Structure of 3-hydroxyisobutyryl-CoA hydrolase:
Amino acid sequence: MAVIADDDGSVLLHRDGRVGRITLNRPRAINALDHSMVRRIDAALLDWERDAEVRTVVITGAGERGLCAGGDIRAIREDALTGGGASRAFWRDEYRLNARTARFPKPYVAVMDGIVMGGGVGVSAHGGLRIVTERSAIAMPEVGIGFVPDVGGTYLLSRAPGELGTHLALTANRIGPGDALLCGLADHFVPTARLGGFLDALASVPAEEAIRAFAEPAPEGELGGQRPWIDACYDADTVEEIVGRLWAVGHPAAGKAAESIMNHSPTALKTTLLALRRARALPGLEEVLDQEYRVSCAFLGVPDLPEGIRAQVVDKDRTPRWSPSTLEAVPPAAVEAFFAPLGDAELGLTRP
């Protein structure tokens, strides 16, 4: 079995029988994505799409901690402070990779074992066959760093049952395998004890056959029993009203959700809610990615993004100083401005 690495070894490409294997190989960083990794994965998918001997593609993460913890947000912070050009280029290629993953014509098996956040969701949850294990911990935590769900996250969350996606986006909560299946972020549960056998089987049998042999019923999640208050509280036009309903409902989990939301960037929260509502009305993933690119680029000029990354990742004091600091101080016009067209700089996935 040949192994082909990129220049720094952060992505390993294996040809194993009928399978093309992608291994994200930055275990110390929980396989966080940088621009070179995105380009390498995209090139591999393009090659394997045309290679008749490759019947299935599998993406996994090196190490024991997870598939992928997201993008390299330290680099995004530094870039935001100095102009943002590198981040725009990174997102352009990353979102195009997300679109390619979604329309990949062969079985694309994403093993969402361990931590899967942000950009990790982007390279997995758009795939055709998404596998979770009892160790899976999946989240779109962007509002906690002064940003918004991207990589097609607003597409996925806007199409979760009821208001579950709004709940996950505004709280940044992690979910396990049962809730990932409920929310439409995963397709099958394979226990970690059977994962090695499943991956070996893919080399010789079709992906669906391997899944039938190794998948099991998932452990029950928590969100199904919370749907009544989640749907009632998050079916509101403003974040302020959502928080008010959460406090009023009297359920301990609802109060905890309200506390989580109030710790996040007010600007990011309001923009995220509008992005989800608009994504729900858009016809497909590519239209949503075009929208997300506009919003992401606009956030490079918002002080909350570098401040949130500083507080959560750089200094780790967990005390971001948001600006504005309250939901009421974020004017609707400022939120609307994040969705303004970019002219010639559009991502352009749906451009004629």
User: Anything to note?
Assistant: The chain has one domain: 2-345.
